[in-house]
Amino acid sequence: MSYKNFKIARLLITFFLAMTVSIAVSTENVLLAVSAIGIGMILMFLVKKNVKAVLVDEMIKNIAGKSALITYSITVPVLAVLSLIFMFSNLGNEGSYLYNLGIIFSYIALFNMAVYSIAYHYYQKKYGSDKE
Amino acid sequence: MAQIKNNIKVLRAEKGMTQEELAEKVNVTRQTIIAIEKNKYVPSLELAYNISLFFKKKIEEVFEYL
After folding, report:
1. In this predicted complex, what is the ipTM?
2. Min CA distance, A1 vs chain B (Å)?
3. Do A115 and A77 share a structural domain?
């Protein structure tokens, strides 16, 4: 499959997913939504497997890495600040919606930091180690 | 600021190749070839060697450190 055909197939799969999920949401059919996502993932996997053209190369990985770093640098501080604001503004009102949201945000920020830290140490060990 | 320039565009024109054909030969996307030709992206050493090998030139004949 050429890159042009891959782009058409990807567009069709996205259209199929958008249509099916919107029908599933409007009819409140969870099974339809889950099966549509499953079928979409399988179709995407099959399409990617049959593409002969290069889809990901070093420049795309480079761009993805930089984008991921910027996303991390923005997301974590924003989540941390929001969680502090939500928790401290509702100190006498523990258990309220905003207080709980603050706790959730802080856990998401911590989870992000943990994943980043693990990934960073993994790659540092992989590339920075003096072991051969 | 130091910059790495290249003459891929000239070498490619000499061979009468398109960016897509070169991209296919060195296993990258056409976007990467475009970015390298415009000096917007500095390729890895491996890709630089692959490009030089493809044109049967020395790496310093294709890439220049200014």
Report:
1. 0.87
2. 14
3. yes
Number of structural domains chain A divides into = 2
Distance from CA of A52 to the nearest CA of B (A): 10
- Same-domain pairing of A74 and A122: yes
The whole-angstrom separation of Cα A69 and Cα A120 is 11
Q: Please report, for residues A109, A119, B26, the alpha-carbon distance to residue A122 in angstroms, rounded to integers and kept in the order given.
A: 20, 5, 29
Query: pTM surpassing 0.90?
Result: no
- A85 falls within a domain: yes
Contact flag A59-B31 (C-beta cutoff 8 Å): yes
Q: Which of A76, A86, A8 is nearest to A43 (CA)?
A: A8
Check whether residue A30 and residue A69 sit in a common domain.
Answer: no
Taking CB atoms and an 8 Å limit, are B28 and A59 in contact across chains?
Answer: yes
Full pLDDT tens readout for chain A, 132 residues? 777 888 899 999 999 999 999 999 999 899 999 999 999 999 999 998 888 878 889 999 999 999 999 999 999 999 999 999 999 998 888 889 999 999 999 999 999 999 999 999 999 999 887 776
Chain A residues lying within 8 Å of B23, measured CB to CB: 54
Q: Do the Cβ atoms of A58 and B24 come within 8 Å?
A: no
